[in-house]
Amino acid sequence: MNLIRTFKNYLQRKSIADQLLYGIMAAAVICVLFIGHYWTSLETRRFKKQSEEIRDRFVNSRMDVVRDEVTRAIGFINYNRSLSEERMRLGLKQRVDEAWAIASNIYEENRKTKSRSEIEKLIKDALRPIRFSNDRGEIFIYTTSGVSVLLPRNKHLENIPGLDYQDQHGNYVVRNEVELLRQVDQGFIHYYSPGKDNPEDSVLLKSSYIRRFAPFNWYLGSKDYLEDFESEMKERILEYLSKIRYGNDGYLFVNTIGGEALITNGVKHLWPQDIRKSNDSNWIEVYQKQVDIYNTTGSGFIEYQFRRLLSEDFETKISYLGTVKEWGWIVGTGFYENEIESFIRDNRKLMEAQIRSTIVHIVLSLLMVLIFIWLVSRWISRKLAQGFAIFNLHFRKTGLESIEMNQENLVFSEFRELAESVNAMTEELNNARKSLVKERSLLRSLIDSSPDFIFFKDLNSNFVGCNKAFADYIGIEESELIGRNDYDFFPKEAADKYHQFDRQIIEDHIPVRSEEWITFSDGSRRLMDTLKVLNFDSAGNPIGIVAISRDISEKEEIQQMYIKAKEKAEEADRLKTAFLANMSHEIRTPMNSIIGFSNLLTEEDLTPEDKAEFIRHINHGSETLLSLIDDIIDIAKIEAGQLMVTFEPYNLREMMDELYHTHAELLKRKGKEQVNLVLESEQLPGGDVILTDPFRLKQVMTNLLVNAVKFTEKGSITYGYKVSGDFLHFFVRDTGIGISPEGIKVIFERFRQDNRYGVKHQGGTGLGLAISRHIVQLLGGDISVSSSPGEGALFSFMIPYNAYTDIVSEKKRGRDSTFSMDWSSKTILVVEDMESHYNYIRSALMRTGLNMVRVSNGQESIECCLNDHQIDIVLMDVNLPDMDGYTATRKIKAHRPGIPVIAQTAYNLPGEENRSREAGCDAYISKPVKLKILLDVLGSFLDNKK
């Protein structure tokens, strides 16, 4: 009973409004908490379940894709393997049949006019140079009695009986061929070798195809090794596999059981990488998992951490592996697990839409609850209306009389508190008026402190106020501004525009924004951004216009800078496009000459003069192409900041004489004999030897002279040097077409040329002068040009004059190109894995009598030098398949320090020669190897060797 009484007393002390408010809020909070908790739990579980299902579907689908890609790749490999023997035989038969047809045609055309010996010579001369299958294949001829007639690679063994010749497995090769021809006129002979895993089994080693040539009792034939044929096929297959792409970034990789990476990240390696020597522990660990699959199931999935292409972060990757055990290959591809996140994000959008739909339903439900509560409250309020009527009557009286409400006649606490609130409200209203005045003063201070122009107008476009910045700009006080309009302060044209803006705002109720340059009293011009909007009263009716004008001059300046930068970028893009088109032309022009005249050399009945002319054109095209490549490499070095100069003593007069002979020959070759080449120089006070970079100095002079020859049709070309104080002044002056003023501004820039004649008509890439200027600056000087159209041009540059008097320059004596040297008593070891380059070395040195021994990798070169002490010199290629040439040289020098080793490399980069010296090489030549340089270097060692 006491508890009930206490609760009643509590209700009596609390107002009805409090009780109603507490009840409504409590009910609403409980409903929201319950519904929100239930919905959150439900949606969380559903989202988690859907995410797992999506992840599983994605992983399974991706696993199916990568398994299918690997299966197709292995199927492609096995299909090509199955056809390798048949393709090799078909190729042999086709080549021999073609050779037989050539021999038959020669015989039929000449048998009535020439003797048998003459016809035999014609047939052998026609078939001897035939090569195919990457220079492996050739045509041989034997008589049906077993005597050799044509052995293209072993001419010294021709006309020798060969019935007793045996190959390395003991097969009587020629005897078997003769026996076959006794039964048929043509056919195949196959030779087998014991299998690696099972000696009782045998595998195809090589095949020969022969065909009888009845007129002379000959037979023609050719042979090929299956291993060599499959090596070519492997390269083609790797090229095909490296180009396979699927999905967004899917690719294949191929490794060998021996640890070589053949294809990585979808790119075929020119030289396979050794994974186990890569120093990448993660790669080695992944490779070991691949080996385990190879040695067990032969195919399957593996999971590991790997770096995505162009990323430094490790990610989980799942790959499927397959194997080609006949070749020892591991073929695979995979995908990264985090690719699912983008897929889940897409599905998450759909689920979020579903969540939003659920929220809408919840909100609608709560709204219905609130409506119900409002109806209940409405019913209660009506019951209370009778009590409020008394209170309302008193309010009506207080509206007419300013009296304080008497609380003695009020019954409920709510009414008494409301009466106190009314009395307090009256007091607060007075305080509010005072606060309004204070806030208005503060607002005014803020407006006046703004540097922007702020002003106010009525609906008739008359000023009703402004801030201090606008008043200072107009030059009057704000009180003088009020009631006046734009026509009182601005020119009529400007005032009309401002008035039109005002009318447009009032009619459309849409803000107006404009930009305008104005002049301040100090004479400065600024760009102002003005925004005008309507001002409304509390009822939404327009009462005036508010305008703010801001200085955006700096923004405009930035915009103009952006436009200029954009134009510059567009110009750079245009130059790049023009350069690529120009480069395509410059590369194809010499290549057309090389390929065209090379094809002409294969024609019969060429005179020696024709051959010499064709070879001259081929050499000229090769030199042009090499010069173009050098220019591209130099400009790339300049871009990377790697182009350097090396100072050494050099005879300047010798260089000028060499330039004279070179460019006099160039004028003659271009049919410009009428142009005079003149050398002007003076005696240097410190002698002809200076300290400079001879290669780069000669490169600059060559560029300038080549340009002069290119653009001069008559008159003269004068070049030379003179001393000017502490500098050497070099110049090239011509009487050619000259350069326009616009051309002078751009010719020293990359890819730029003087195009006042329209389409470029003299060739060139626009790189030579840019490279020359950079070289001159590295040498400590600068380059300039003076010219006028039609009056020739004068290029000149100055570099510091550094005399060098400690040595006496001696002219380099070139070796006689008539091959008068006799090195028949000497033996050279040529370490070269490229067949084509070795053939060039062999042909180049054949007429010297030099005995040649060839190996194709570093390990064989070491063993050969240690076992064969007849070797007098080693020509070492730096880039070898098993180990680099420098490593091989160090091992050779460790046992035979006295044997000369000459390094040859295509890496024509700064520091490469020093690197070869550090490895122990005695000399260094760069590819492409020129015959004269090769003979000079060899002669410097062989001519002095007893």
Automatic annotation (TrEMBL):
It is a multi-pass membrane protein. Pfam families: dCache_2, HATPase_c, HisKA, PAS_4, Response_reg. The keyword Nucleotide-binding applies. Residues 512-564 form the PAC domain. PROSITE patterns: HIS_KIN, PAC, PAS, RESPONSE_REGULATORY. The modification 4-aspartylphosphate is found at residue 877. Keywords: ATP-binding, Cell membrane, Kinase, Membrane, Nucleotide-binding, Phosphoprotein, Transferase, Transmembrane, Transmembrane helix, Two-component regulatory system. This is histidine kinase. InterPro entries: CheY-like_superfamily, Double_Cache_2, HATPase_C_sf, HATPase_dom, His_kinase_dom, HisK_dim/P_dom, HisK_dim/P_sf, PAS. PANTHER family: OSMOSENSING HISTIDINE PROTEIN KINASE SLN1, TWO-COMPONENT HISTIDINE PROTEIN KINASE. Residues 439-509 form the PAS domain. SMART domains: Cache_2 (SM01049), HATPase_c (SM00387), HisKA (SM00388), PAS (SM00091), REC (SM00448). GO terms for cellular component: plasma membrane. One of its GO terms (molecular function) is phosphorelay sensor kinase activity. Its main location: membrane. The lineage of its organism: Bacteria, Pseudomonadati, Bacteroidota, Bacteroidia, Bacteroidales. Its EC number is 2.7.13.3.
